[in-house]
Amino acid sequence: MPPPTETTRRAMYDLVWSKPMSKVAQDFSISDVALKKSCEKHRVPTPPRGHWAKKAAGKSVKQIRFVETADPLDEKITIFASSQAELPAPVREVLQRAREARAGRPKPPSAAATSTVIPIERIHPTIASTAEKLRTHKPDRDGVVSAHGNGCCGIDVGIASIERCIAVLNALARSLDAQGIAIIATGGGMAISTEGAKVPFRLNEYVRRDKHVPTSDELLAEERRRERQRITWDSSYGRLYPDWDFVRTGELMIEIENQYAHGLRRRWKDGKQTRLEHLADEIATGIIAYGVAVKLKHEERERCNRNYERQRRVNERADAREEREGERQKILDELVAISTEASKLRVWLEEAKRWPERSQSDEFTRFVEWARARLEYLEHAVDPDGIAESLKQSQLFPEADPLIDPPEDLIEE
């Protein structure tokens, strides 16, 4: 995370009255909503809606006067940058293009204004099978309709939310289609494929768990069962009514699955002001940005793996070179020892020639003959041709050295 930015009330006041809040927020790497909340918290007056449009049109505008406060906690403002500031440049570009595209569009209608859902007739082809199953299949005993299997989006939704679910899927499919990306119905969920990365996601309905309140009929039936089975202890085992009721709330949520990208949103749900079907463009952009981030993450992981393998090869060659140097040194030490022994033996044999000759062969004469044979053996051991043949067999001095690091293994990606 980038370090927080600290400023004062007066400095913030001068900033927000010098240019639009959106541009000031961009400088701090936060949203304009977050900037507005921070100004309100520290009692910094901000321009009203339409201020900059009026000023650009040459109309008279009024600037709210700055007032000092006696509270020292208000004077110091700390701005914590959004984690999106650390996102890779390609991901930020996707999000920025989407923000610019949404800038001129009207705000989506409020949740209260869209409480009535009109069934959609023109269904996008990628969700047609899902819509057909949701509309034609019978609900289970809990009132849940499912659309799983070949060509379906893996939906489980309460019967009251079928048309809303179809509306959300249809809007999302068309928004993705406008950007050249199609929903892949996996049978148990959905996914998109972008930039070579697959992003799985699901549409779910919130389920609330309420403690079950047994009806009088259930209590009566349970009492009869206990009398029949002569159960005298208080046990819920095998009870005729459940402990909990699982209630379909009608609140929908889209969530990206099995992936994680730091700084990016991965869940969208119905809010008090905006319904999920009116967030299709935002959701589509978020999923696409997630795909770009996942691709970059995979590329970074592959790059790290390649560097790891490169370093492993370099280390292996270094170890092999060290081992080979040890073998070379061992042979050299042996040859030096042989040459030293041969030199000393040669001097001794020359000196032995000057000694008086023995009248008859005895142990000393035989010892001198053995020494000459030993010298001959040692001289043959240090013969260049013999050494070369031995070195060739052990591959200690090959003409093309396989243990030299190639150029590509010396540069880290």
Q: How are the SSEs ordered, and which strands pair?
A:
Layout: E1 5-8, H1 9-16, H2 21-28, H3 32-41, H4 51-56, H5 72-75, E2 76-79, H6 89-103, H7 128-136, E3 144-147, E4 155-158, H8 162-178, E5 184-185, E6 190-194, E7 197-211, H9 216-229, E8 244-256, E9 267-269, H10 280-353, H11 363-381, H12 384-394
Antiparallel strand pairs: 1-2, 3-4, 5-6, 6-7, 7-8, 8-9
Structure write-up:
The chain is α+β, with helices and mostly antiparallel strands. The chain has 3 domains: 5-83, no CATH class; 90-303, no CATH class; 321-409. The protein has helices at 9-16, 21-28, 32-41, 51-56, 72-75, 89-103, 128-136, 162-178, 216-229, 280-353, 363-381, 384-394; strands at residues 5-8, 76-79, 144-147, 155-158, 184-185, 190-194, 197-211, 244-256, 267-269. A hairpin with a 4-residue loop joins β5 and β6.
What keywords describe this structure?
413 residues, 12 helices, 9 strands, 3 domains, alpha+beta, five-stranded antiparallel β-sheet
Task: Return Rg in Å.
Answer: 42 Å
Shape: elongated
Number of helices: 12
Strand order of the largest sheet: 5-6-7-8-9
Percent of residues in β-strands: 5-15%
Number of separate domains? 3
- Regions with little confidence, pLDDT below 50 for 5+ residues: none
Q: Whole-number average pLDDT?
A: 86
* Through-space gap between termini: 24 Å
| Sheet of most strands | 5 strands, antiparallel
Q: In terms of structural class, how would the helical and strand content be classed?
A: alpha+beta
Q: What is the string of SSEs from the N terminus onward?
A: EHHHHHEHHEEHEEEHEEHHH
Helical residue percent?
40-55%
